[in-house]
Every structure is written in structure tokens, then in C-alpha cells.
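User: Modeling request: complex.
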Amino acid sequence: MTGGEGLRLEALSLALRGEPLFAPVTLTVPPGRVAAIVGPSGCGKSSLLLALCGLLSGPFTVSGEAWIESIPLLQLPPERRKLGLIFQDPLLLPHLSVAENLAFGLSAAAGRRGKGERAAAIEEALAQIRLPGYGKRDPATLSGGQRARVALMRSLLAEPRALLLDEAFASLDAGLRQEMRSFVAAILRERGLPALLVTHDQADAEALAEQQVELAFVQQNT
Amino acid sequence: MRLSRRQILAGSAGLAALAMAPQARADAFDLSDWDSVAAAARGQQVYFNAWGGDRRINDYIAWAGQTLMERHGVELIQVKISDVADAVTRVLAERTAGQDSDGAIDLIWINGENFAAMKANDLLFGPFTSALPNWRLVDLVDNPTALVDFTIPTDGLEAPWGRAQFNILYDSDQVSAPPPRFAGFLDWAKEHPRRLTYPRPPDFMGTTFLKQGLITLTPDPSILEKPPADQAAFDAAAAPLWDFLDQLTPLLWRGGSSYPTSGPAQQQMLADGELDFAFSFNPGDLQSGIATGLFPASTESYLFDGGTLGNSHFLAIPYNARAKAGALVAINFLISSEAQARKADPQLWGDPTILALAALTPAERARFESLASPPQPLTPGASAPSLPEPHPAWTSALEAAWTSRYGR
Amino acid sequence: MGGAVGAVVVLLLGAPVLLGLVGVVLPAFGYLPALGGESLTLDPWRQLFAEPGLWTAALLGLSSGLLATLLSLCLVIALLAAGPLWLRRGLQALLAPLVAVPHIALAVGLTFLIMPSGWLVRFVSPWPSGWERPPDLAFPQDDLGLSLILGLVAKETPFLLLMALAALPRLDEEWRLAMARSLGYHPVTAWLKTVLPDLLRALRLPLAAVLSYGVANVEMAVILGPNTPPTLAILILDWFRDPDLAQRFLGSAAALLQLGIVLFALALTWGLALGLGRLARRLAADGRRGQGRLLLPAGLWLALPPLLALTLLALLVLFVWSFAARWRFPDLLPVWSLETWQRQGESVALLTGQSLALALCSTAIALLLAFALLESRRPARQRAAEPWLLPVLALPLLVPQIAFLFGAAVAALQSGIAAPWFFVLWGHLLFVLPYVYLTLAGPHRGLDRRYHQQAISLGKGPWRVFFTVTLPLLRAPLLTAAAVGLAVSFALYLPTVLLGGGRVVTLASEAVALSGGGDRRLLAVTALLQALVPLLAIALAIRLGRKRRFLP
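Assistant: Request completed. Predicted assembly structure:
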């Protein structure tokens, strides 16, 4: 019953004030692969990701179970789940420079505490997202695509066990979107990370994901 | 009165204030012709700057205002101030700004150093007292303070309104044998530390306490009638007082690190049981305090053996007052036998009259004699005479010295 | 039109402050011809520095203002970073009314609570404390100014919290937290590292206003502050009011010193904020996720509910005193009576009327000017406020009142216009307009421009658009701004007494006069009304603002 490798959801479902939002979802995403969750807006796709991260509170309840690398997720506090969450809005902190935004994500694990070590790691990360020398810049001066890459890299620097992409390409125009998709796909393959993509855009889903799960509305009498 | 008050209420007071200017120009009268004064006064608004810290006094002034409106068409508006010095400052500021007419203050309740300051700076209207029809009723013989205010001759620039004598209040259930003399407070405080204090000078009750101490302790009280000759003379005269206070201060309430802000505040603390003594300048305070439930019925008051400070308080008109005629009519009413008798009623205020009862008609005299319990027990007697106030120069010097010694 | 309105506002707010300061600067150096000071001299300063207790007084104001501001800010930060969500939501409804409680009324109520014969002591007396008489506690009005700090914190914390809650929605708080937590950050650390720096930037003006008020205020310091010596602001007031006019030179020098101290405090906190900002960036970039080490200081939010309870109790004790016939220590409750309300009803109604007249007039003018300012900027569209506007609006809030109002009062006298009410109204406008404008500016900027474009394309003129589109869309903020203006006006003490020369008497000035030892029952009635009217106005504004014609 436990997950094995990658990310596994087992009969995962959300309820709002006791009313289930969608039919339970079961899926497995192997390392380096992407699964897409599609569905109309308002069906609870984004809430599902927040629930996986442990960030859903208030009137929502979660049922079912989820594992990452065989670790049951739902019992862990949010900050120990190690799931990189990428939003449509890159949410770069305006009071920090590009490098500091990346450093915010860079974990403080052993070997990454010293000033020099951290600076080197940031420089390397900037190079990886094709923004070498951009470290001192104000994030507000970056283009939309550059911001999206910084946000992605910030999540990766935190050494996540999986990536959760919430309409992550929606704010980009068509050309950039294509570029970003292949960039993400390459990175996931390279690092062997499983990813869950939530989108209402069929093209996103088809370009990246090997499997698609459509969230079905639960019939409600309202 | 109602109409003009409503004007203020309605927020049109800005306009009302502008509209007042022509009225002032119509204010022409001849001081020797009282009828012209009364005619000019009709319709005037008299801003009466009076200490507003006592509800009974405010009620009394409100009654006077109502009566003045009904009988003389004068609207008396009390501007409640916490320190008369504020009003003096105001007049000074007006003169500084060159506003020699239409000043903000028409009538002022005053005595002592504030009168001295105003007189010295020519800030008072008058002499006017002998023009008042009721002036003939005022006791100028048996009351040495009617014409001399803290050793300064009044010169007709202010009319006496009431009399006062420093007295001490205590709860006889808590304190069986209060110290009979000023100096006894020190022994008393040694036995009962932190249960005694005095209002913070320059509050006038606190300053009065200092003056009482000065008069009692200084080697030669007669030098207090004139300003201190020089700093050395002041230091010599005040040295025994500072000795006394140096010993007393650590034994005071809060160890002398803080003082009540005023006489009434000190009386509240006596009422709360936080202090064992409070001071008063008005024999009526005791009875009215018991009547209103502030003090328990066991509260009593007394005078020191050898006497306590006594003085009169006065009414004066600033030189640049807008409604001088109205102010004159108001003063004349306030020293009438009717107004004085009401003021002497301990149920209402309890302030001793400045009138000579002998000068009154039998009917007028009856008003005073019918008072339930006139404030007789505290009128000066052989063992506790009313002591004259020192010259105001001593007052300001005492306040300044106290402030640098204990007040900061 | 925009330029004209701007000029009016500059004149209206800038002129009194600057004239007032000039009226203090010259006498501070001995120049005041009316008093015989015709040459420049340093004598006033020599006299000032020889004053006993000067530095104690100055330090007292500085330390109480600084500490109170910092403490209030820490409480706000602790609540937002670590407090439970239910408390935050629960407070949100309570805050606006709490902010409307004037300093004076709060200080009086707190005194009735915490004095040795106050309600808190009565709760435990004579059992279990054993106190048959009030205990010998040097509190309130303690030498260190602790009771003053308590009063300031109780007053300013709700204000800062309200300002913070208004600023947070623009900062994407929830998303930043979600992002940081998904990166492995502890929730408190996440808030401190992602939200706090920008929140502090948004709170700069409110913080500066709170600090300036705290250091140099008169109202709270006179009621809750120590008196041997009092704070510098109180000393200045005493000097300016001294019958010996020569003391004005001294007072003027001291007023300049006070201005310098406020500027010093502002510079100090500004420097501190810069340093903290740099530190925050370093900390944000160090990657530490902070697993709970911050919990201890963050637990400070626990102090918030007792603090607010104290404020509510302070209002309650005013209410109780106002219905007391007699209330002797250690009775927990008084012998009840309507007497104070009945006997003083008329005079108190008059005071309330005077306060209301000033509040309504100043608020109405302030609303007009605020709208004129905001609408005249419209064509410039997205451009933020003109660079000069904010400094001018902030001027009366940042320059200590005690430093410029005396000079302004003398200038008013010298104008020869004998209209004290008019000058008091002007004085109120100095403080009402900035708050009204700042309350309206955000929502006005947030208006969806397309409604107007739509209306204009339908052929409506600018006035019709304003009345049929802008005003209805801004109904809730408009009502809030009106209530805020009214509350600000009700709380003003110094402008009323100084510019009115004693002729304009309001609930605020009466309450301060009575606080020196008058009848506690009458003081309670006065202070209670001073608090109740703004409270009702705020409650009404919230209620009316929420009511909608069509339910969603």
C-alpha cells in the first residue's frame, strides 16, 4: 500500500464544509515524470495542491492519503513536506534582489551555510536559468519569463522531493510558454523529480504530462 | 441666552463671533452714570474666566448667569480654566499682539500673584469699584483683606467676592488627634509615614501650604509684608522651611516622588482613604463634601493654633474686555446681598460673605441668618486668627525654589 | 483646478505650521519686540539649560514615546506573525471602534482603573489582598513613566494594527506565506522574512506619527505621566502659560528643543529601520528556516487580549463612575444615581454640541478638499500623489503640536480677526484633513477606472460621473473617512485651547481641566461622552457602509 518511488495519491479528496468537491483521485507519478490534473476552474484543482502542501485551512477537510518517496505526507507539518510549489504569479519578494530571492530558497543544509558556499551556489543557479550576472537586480526589472525561471529555481534550491505546478505557465505568452515547458521538462528529467501539474490549458497538459486526470465535479444539490 | 447658545451649538459660532464686532462698538457708557452702564450691558455676552474645578461653584455661577439674564439681559458664560494664570497669560498675549479692545476675557476671578501681575502690567480696567451701587454694602472695616490683596492695594481695580481661610480636613475615625500646629506634621509623619502630602506647587493650595509653613517657621514674619530684599534675605527667611521639608519629604505619600495635582485631587485622596489629611480654603468644602457623599460623615476640619492664612478673592475686568458694561453689571450682582447669601449657603457653596451684615436691611440680613449652618466654626477666632498673605514676590520665589528643590 | 486645490491645501496646512514654527524660532533667540526682545541672543537657551530637571523631563518624553511605539509595533508584529487567526479576525471588527476612543478619555478611564484606589485594586480588596485602605503604590504617574507608556501602548496598538491590516491585502500575504512554507519555512519565520519588511515600509507614516505624538504629547502625559518633573511637553505648556511673559522666551527655546528631540527620535528610528532592513535581507538570504526559535518573543501577542480588555474596562469604569452617587474605597460598585447626568445634562449637552459642531464642520471641509485633491489628479491617471502632497499632509502629524501651536495662536491674534471659533476650526482641520485624505486615497486609487470610462462614453459630464459613479462606489470608505475625521476632531485638545483662547470649550478641553482633580463623576461623564460619540459614529459608518442595496 505504501508509495514506493515518486509521488502517490490514494483516493485523495477534498470536502468543503463536509461537501466533497470532486471524486477521489488516485495516481502515481514516477521520478522525472509529470502528471496533469485538468478540470474547469473552480473545481478545486488548486486547492488540491495546497492540500498536498498542507496549506489549506479553514472550512476544508482532506481525506485519503499521499506519499512521497514512501513517506506519508498528510501527517507532516507543511514546512517538512518538501514539495516545491510554483504559482502562476512568481511571487518574487520585492524587498530582496534576484540573488537574495534565490538565497531565500537555498536550503541551509550542511555545506550551504558559509557565505562563499552560498554565493557560489546562487551563481551556479543563475547560470542554470540563463540569467548569469543578474543577481544584484531588482526582480521588478525582470521580464515575465525571467521571473518565472527565478521562481522555479528558488523552489529547486530548497531541494524539494517533488514539484507542484499551479497554472505555472498561465501568465506567459505563447512563445515563452513553450520555452518554459521544455525548460521545466528538462530540469525534472535531469533531477529525477516527480511533478504534478494543475492547469485548465489542455496544451500545457499534453505537452508535459504522460498521464492526465480529469477532476470530476461531485453532483451537488445546491 | 438660549438663542445665542444655540447659535454656538449650530456651528454658526464662527459667524456669530464675526457678528459680535459691531456690538462692541455700541458699548459706550459713563462709569459715573450707572443707568448708562446697565443700558450698555443689556444684550452683552460676558466671558467669565473662572477656575472650573468645583461642581458647586460651577453650579453657582450657572445660577448667577441665569438670574443675570432674566433681570439684566446679560449673558454670563463661564470659561472654566484650571489655572487663573492661563487667563492672565491670555490678556498679556492679546496685548503683545496689539489687541487692545475686543479681548477674549471680560471678567476674571483672581487674587494674589495673578492680580499683582495684571496690575503691574496695567492690564486691568478701572478703578471701578466705587461706581458699583452695591459697593456700599461691602465690609471694608473688619475685613483687612478687602482692599489689600496679598499686601498689594487693590486701588479699585478689583472687587472682593468672597473670603477664605486655609483649613485642614481629616477623617476623625482614622485620625484621633491631628497635629495642632504646622510643625506637628513632621512628628505625625514619622509615626505614620506616606500618609500625608500637599498639592504640587504652583497649584495654589500647594503654594498656600508652603506659605503657611513659611509664616509659621520663619524667624521674623514681619519681613514678609515687603518683597524679599535680596536672594540672601529670601534664603535666610526660607531656610527653616526647607529644613522642615527636607525632613518631611521622604515621609510623604510616595516618598515625595509625586504630588497630587490640586487641592480637590488631594481631597479625593482623603475621601479614598489614601491620605490622612487634605487642605481646603473654603469652610464649605467639608459640609458639601459630606452632603454629596464624597467624605464620610466622620470627616472634620480644623485650623492651626496660632492661625492660618486667610485672604479674599476678587473679581476684575481686563483692560481690553469687550463687554465691560456687562462685566460691571455682573460684578454688582455678584456682590449683592442675594447672591452673597446664596454663596454663603454651605449646601450650595459655603463661601463666607464680604458684605458688612450691619449695612444690610433686616430682610437682607435674615437671608444670612437663616442659613442652616453657616460656616461659623472656622471663622477666625482668638486662638486661630486669619493670618495675612505674604507679598506676592515671596510667593513666586517660594514656588521657584520649591520646584528646583523638590519638583523636578 | 488641480493646482488651485493643491495651493489651498498647502496654505491651509503648511502656513499655520510654518508660521507657528517661526513664531517660536525668533523668541527662542531672544527676538520678540512686543516683549522688549529686539536683538538676537542665546540667553533663552542658557536659561533653558540651567532649568532643574530639564534633561530628566526631556529624556522622559523621549523614552516613553520611543518605548511605547516600539512596544506597540512589537505587539502588532507578534500578533500578525504568530497570533492565532481567530484572534486576528475577532480583533478586526473591534479595532476601528477602539481606535476611535480619544487619548484623553482612555487616559482618564485607565487612571480610574489602575490608581491605588482604582477598580483593579478594588477587585482584590479587602479580600484577598487585605487592603482596607488604598495600597501605597507609586502608580500611576510613576517616575519612570510606566503608566504613561501603558496608556500610549493601549491607545496606539489598535491604531497600528488597523493600519497594518489595511496594508496587508496589498502585500499578497497569504501567497507569500504559502510560497515560503512550501520552501520549508516555519510559519513565524516565513511571515517575518517575507511579509514584515514590506509591511514596515507601508507603516512608515503611521509609525512616525505615533512616535512624534508619543514623545511630545500633552494629553496623556498630563493625566498619566509623572509630575516631578513632568515630560518636557508639559514643562513647555507651563512656561507658555506663565503669567510672567518673559518665560515665553524660555518656552520658545524649549519648544525648539522638543522639535529637535522629535526629529532625533524620528531619525533614530529611521536609522534603526534602515539597519533592520539590511539585517532582514541578510537573514532572509541565510536560508535558515527557523524551527521555532522565534516562538518566545512571538508569544508577545498573548499580551494583546489583556491590553484590549484593559481598554474596554477603562470605558466601563467611566460608565460606572458617571452613574455613581458615592463610591468609597474598597466598594466594588458605587451607590448608583442619575444625579450627575441630570444636574450636568445641560452643560454637558452644550459641550457635546460644541465638539460636534467643530467635528462636523472640519470633517465636511476635509472631505470636500480630499475629494477635490483626488479628483483633480484623475487626468494624470496612474500617477501617484504629487510629491509635495504627502509631506504637506504629514507635516501637522509629525511636527509636535506643542512646538508650533503657540506660534500659530500668536499669529492668529496678530491677524486682528476676533473669531476664535474659526481659528479652532482651522486648527482641527490641520489634523482632520490628513487622516480623512489618507483614509480615502487608497480606495479612491483602487477604483476600477473602467466604470468612469463607461459612464463618460455614455455621455455623462464629469459632475454626473462623480455623483452617480464615484461617490456610490466609494460609499463605505467615504463613511469611514467621515467617522475617522469626527473621531480625530473629538480628540483634539491643544488646538482647541490654544487657538480658541479659552472661548471654545469642548469635551476634550473640559475633560483635561477636570482631570486635575475635579469631581470624578463629572469627569467620567465628560470623558465617556468624548469616547461615545466617535464610537457611535464609527459603528454607524461600519453598519451603513456594509448595507448594500442588492445582496450578492
